[in-house]
Design a protein that fits this description.
Elements: H1 8-21, E1 30-42, E2 47-57, E3 63-74, E4 77-84, E5 88-90, E6 94-104, H2 113-117, E7 120-133, E8 136-149
Length: about 150
């Protein structure tokens, strides 16, 4: 029996997911592009690049994003990881900017000196984030690729 007294949490989650799947009005958040890329800091052992991703939430309700873990590639070469353990609030029916900070080791990236000197690179951000509301979250994939300017 699906609804048993042994696991009330499972029953609650099952009912909530059944209800949400029955709602045809839930729409995917739309990726709009990379708004900005900027080198924040560059040292011998640590570098940081800020990447601002733009999205649009077409839903009549806001969402929370948390536990974002992304891998970042430049011209198909692994650069580093962007993590965000903090909760990010997505407004309803609105465009929004989602900033991530990519941390990398410049010494390991020395073979990619050409990337830092280039005016434009192909940037790919791939990973997941948890999206949800009021304690119910699902893991959502992120995979965007775009040519961006570093200047």
């Amino acid at each position: 029996m699906i609804f048993s007294n042994r696991n009330p949490l499972f029953s609650f989650v099952f009912i909530a997911l059944f209800f949400c799947l029955g709602c045809n009005s839930i729409k995917d958040i739309e990726y709009r592009g990379i708004k900005e890329t900027k080198i924040q800091s560059m040292g011998i052992s640590k570098g940081t690049v800020k990447v601002v991703l733009q999205y649009f939430n077409p839903n009549k309700f806001g969402l929370d994003l948390k536990e974002t873990l992304l891998e970042v590639y430049a011209n198909d070469k692994y650069i580093g990881i962007a993590e965000n353990a903090e909760k990010f609030i997505v407004p309803k029916l609105a465009n929004f900017d989602f900033p991530i900070y990519v941390h990398f080791n410049p010494l390991k990236a020395m073979g990619m000196v050409g990337l830092l000197q280039a005016d434009k690179i192909n940037l790919r951000v791939k990973g997941t984030t948890k999206a949800g509301k009021k304690g119910i979250y699902i893991r959502v994939p992120i995979d965007v690729k775009e040519e961006v300017s570093l200047r």
